[in-house]
Amino acid sequence: MFTDRMRLILLALLIVLMASCSGSKNPSDEAVEVTIIQLNDVYEIAPVDGGRYGGMARVAQVIREEKEKNPNTLTVVAGDFLSPSLLGTLKLNGRRISGRQMIEVFNAAGIDLVTFGNHEFDLKRDALQERIYYSKFDYTTANVFQKTGNDTLPFQEMENGRIVDIPSFVRRKFRNENGVTAELGFFGVTLPFTRKDWVVYAPVEEKIREMIDSLQSSDALIAITHLDFHDDTMYARKYPRINLIIGGHDHEHMYFDIRGTLLAKADANARSIYIHHLRIKPGAGVQIHSELKVIDDQVPEDSVTLGVVNKWLKVQDEIFRKMNVDPDEVLMRAPPEGLDGLEATVRNRPGNLAQLIASAMLKAVPGAEAAILNSGSIRVDDVLKGDITQYDVLRTLPYGGAVLKVKIKGELLEKVLNVGRRNRGNGGYLQWANISADSRRNLWMINGVPIDKKRIYTIAMPAFLLSGMESNLGFLNRENKGIIEVEEPGEAERLRKDIRYAVIAYMKDLAAAQK
User: Fold this and answer.
1) What span, in angstroms and rounded, lies between the C-alpha atoms of 161 and 24?
2) How far does CA 316 lie from the centroid of its chain?
3) Would you state the pLDDT for residue 39?
4) What stretches of 191-337 adopt beta strand conformation (E)?
């Protein structure tokens, strides 16, 4: 028979047990798991490197699998996807495609959030706005605006059938199975590289500070940046409140822990992606584990996205046929090591593909003593092997453009070459033909003879390089007093009217010489 004392003891034990059980199920003590899939600098919808790497259908399959593992999955792109690509430069029904193919593929693949890269502004204003409206994913930018009349206004996107301003930041809330919620704050910034009279760039660092203040209540802060590596690392050191920087622009994968702020950049053209696993305890911080996933031919393809990719590849082929271009025509056989057009090569050191292009320019311009070429015009990011076709040339040089015959003072030419060498790592790094450097004597030479600062040289160069729009080469323009004369291609000079014609002809000559 229970005594009053025994009843009190049992009641106390029951209360302790209930409290213990309640504590073990208390959602506030549990973490929210979030997965972020990162891409950056995606120009090709199909695999590259002979089908071995990349391909948005493969990326879509990874997205699908990660969402099955964790519904709290978000896919983010850190800029540069609407341009440049060969397909984007072609015209369909009289209008340039200008990234339509990428929007359709991204929509099918399940992209969630993007920021602008500098190449988004290669497009004309109306085309860019149209692409944004047709995007099923969201945009965010803290520092890029459009100029309308005398006003500076946000770009706009479509949300549930309504036109709204693209926000400077976005908040995303995620919930675990026990009802615990965590908020991630995202913002995007872009380097002020592509200059257009309708694009306005606010100072990057000023906007970063503003975004940190606006998102200080978020459980984790994610910066989506399209900046160069040096700026990303600088901001990571200065602003430790940022937990993760999802970066683009540099095209090669990298991962750094900078005083607790993680900086990640994947390989261009989806050769690789980063998968970030975040474990968030609201009010108690975030742990991040990141994995670099190589997207190769061992990754299956999502059938829905593959259907969209194949649709656009068929469109491309049909346009070529109407242009009387035979993309399958074999021009030459690559050397055993291949023609190296990887951006890691062409933007950092002389490469055989870039030297071949410069040599083709030199041959196409009668009287030229040397040729210089900005590496940013080479967009293939691939090693071309085996039979080299017209299609390989077209995708290597999607911008095309005229080859100019430029008379330039030796003093200015030396300055251009010095800056071009210091541009290592970006599109302003220069490739050349019939030019060499004597680093021991700090001399540039043409045809083995040191450049005479007072002499006038005749140089072949792409029209874009003389526009003053290349990185750190703004002084190289037609108004510079060191430019003595600029000769445009004549009516009969077909090879100079488009650099691709010059390269195709040069490759055919090489093939004939090999026989």
Assistant:
1) 45
2) 22
3) 98
4) 199-201, 220-226, 244-247, 254-258, 261-265, 272-280, 286-294, 330-333
Six-digit token pair at 237? 């050191």
Q: How confident is the model at residue 7 (pLDDT cuts 50, 70, 90)?
A: low
Q: Are 330 and 420 in contact (CB under 8 A)?
A: no
10 Å Cβ neighbour count for 89?
A: 16
Question: Which of helix, strand or coil describes residue 425?
Answer: coil
The residue length of the chain stands at 515
If one looks up domain 29-304 in CATH, what number appears? 3.60.21.10
pTM: 0.80
Close Cβ partners of 101 (under 8 Å, ≥ 6 residues apart): 45, 85, 87, 88, 312, 315
Is the Cβ–Cβ distance between 475 and 467 less than 8 Å? no
CA 1 to CA 10: how far, in whole Å?
A: 13
The DSSP H or E segment spanning 56 is helix 56-69
Cβ–Cβ under 8 Å, residues 429 and 473: no
Nearest residue to 315 (alpha-carbon basis) of 99, 104, 87, 95: 87
Written as six digits, the tokens of 49 are 């490197």
Contact partners, residue 440, CB within 8 Å, separation at least 6? none
Strand (E) or helix (H) holding 150: none
Token pair 């504590």 is found at: 23
Look at the alpha carbons of 181, 235, 344, 140 in this order and tell me if their dihedral is positive or negative: positive
* Domain locations in the chain as residue ranges: 29-304, 326-514
455-499 pLDDT, tens digit per residue, is 999 999 999 999 998 989 999 999 999 999 999 999 989 999 999
Tell whether omega for the bond before 167 is within 30 degrees of 0, i.e. cis: no
* Shared fold status for 29-304 and 326-514: no
Could you tell me the pLDDT band of residue 8, with boundaries at 50, 70 and 90? low
| Domain with residues 326-514, CATH architecture | Alpha-Beta Complex (3.90)
Per residue in 154-175, is it b (16+ CB within 10 Å) or e — as a string?
A: ebbbeeeeeeeebbbbbebebe
